[in-house]
Amino acid sequence: FTELESDQIARFQEYLRIHTAHPSPDYAGAASFLLPYAASLGLHTTTLHLTPCKTKPLLLLTWPGSDPSLPSVLLNSHIDSVPAEPEKWAHPPFAAHRDPATGRIYARGAQDDKCLPIQYLEAIRGLKAAGFAPTRTLHISLVPDEEIGGVDGFEKFVESEEFRALNIGFMLDEGQASPTDVFRVFYADRLVWRLIVKAAGSPGHGSRMFDGAAVDNLMDCVEAIAGFREAQFRMVKAGKRGPGEVVSVNPVYMKAGIPSPTVRVFGSQFACLSLDSMVKLVAVAKDRLMQGFVMNMQPSEAEVGFDLRLPPTEDIEQIKWRVKEEWAPAHKNLTYELIRKGPVTDVAGRPIFTATNESNPWWSVFEQAITSAGGKLSKPEILSSTTDSRFVRQLGIPALGFSPMTNTPILLHDNNEFLEDKVFLRGIKVYEHLIRALSCLQG
Ligand SMILES: CSCC[C@H](NC=O)C(=O)O
Ligand SMILES: [Zn+2]
Ligand SMILES: [Zn+2]
């Protein structure tokens, strides 16, 4: 690596070491890293507080263009990350360990999406060093709370006067890794719903066989949904549909059982016990702690939660019918809640997606920039998960999801999330091409 490249990798690692994971992301720490970094490159920096408590800053970095009357270009990235289970990782999730043999940098956020701000900023460094000056103004937004729905983040941002004043013409936001050497790009996100099904039923002794127990009723629901899920998944496995082109309905939690009180043993009690009964008591306590539930009672209530996602053009009415008639019918003692998360149509009442044809000049410029960077682009896809792009697309502003990570397994929200150093560095070059092209698109 050149000295510059080593520095770029080090800056990426430094950012990854900031604990930005929920439930208590260190936004202040991230801001004290990112703001002086951007200022050192000559960018204007602003911090917006969209919540009264001021604990969720939204950072805006600006490189003014020579023609500020033209709509600007926005590069977005969320600051927060999902939690990690450190004991299940090969390397600590906030150490940003670089494996010298493979060049893999392991960290929560390595792919999702803490590579982006560093790549944006280092691309700007490169462009400035090459004497490039943008025509359109370029903004970078670094936003809180994407991982928890963006209610105090991008959703408030798009409603703000500050956002309107930016006059955004086009946005690039995160995408997903590509396991092949072809870059992936996303023109839409699926819609997010939550489905919660509750079952009631007859309670009884754990040994009795009877009809209509709550868990039994809930299992009928789970089986019905599993059948639907399998049919959708089959289309993906057969290559007939992309992962964003089907309805997914995945169980994410299950709740049932009568909690058992934990056995507490005090020192004084221990004192009068024989060694034998002490060992037995510890075994009982351990057993109860592990299970946490009474083992010989069939509970009268049970619950399951599903993460439900629909392609933007899918008809929710059909799903509503299925839930009512097939998945959670009242005659099986099942009740449900179907909760919408985020917008389902744009301001004009149309499905939320960005055009990827001649009608969208930004699309052609994007495509050409990837080619000029020596990259190949796969057919534009619908993202199976959800990003802040939906808030921008909802306003009718074009936005594409893109993370320049080729030959990389998809590890967002997974254990041992990593990004290879060379892939990260190549991404900087790709953004140099993208920024050059997008910021000079003629009005
Ligand atoms: C309710 S919006 C949730 C947003 C979240 N984004 C990334 O994982 C997601 O679950 O896709
Ligand atoms: Zn993300
Ligand atoms: Zn995420």
UniProtKB/TrEMBL annotation:
One of its GO terms (molecular function) is aminoacylase activity. Zn(2+) 1 binds at H78, D112, E174. Gene3D superfamilies: 1.10.150.900, 3.30.70.360, Zn peptidases. Zn(2+) 2 binds at D112, E147, H413. It is an enzyme of class 3 (hydrolase). Binds 2 Zn(2+) ions per subunit. Keywords: Hydrolase, Metal-binding, Signal, Zinc. InterPro entries: Aminoacylase-1_M20A, ArgE/DapE_CS, N-acyl_aa_amidohydrolase, Peptidase_M20. Its EC number is 3.5.1.14. Its cofactor is Zn(2+). GO terms for biological process: amino acid metabolic process. It holds the Pfam family Peptidase_M20. It is found in: Cytoplasm. The keyword Zinc applies. One of its GO terms (cellular component) is cytoplasm. The active site is at D80, E146. This is N-acyl-aliphatic-L-amino acid amidohydrolase.
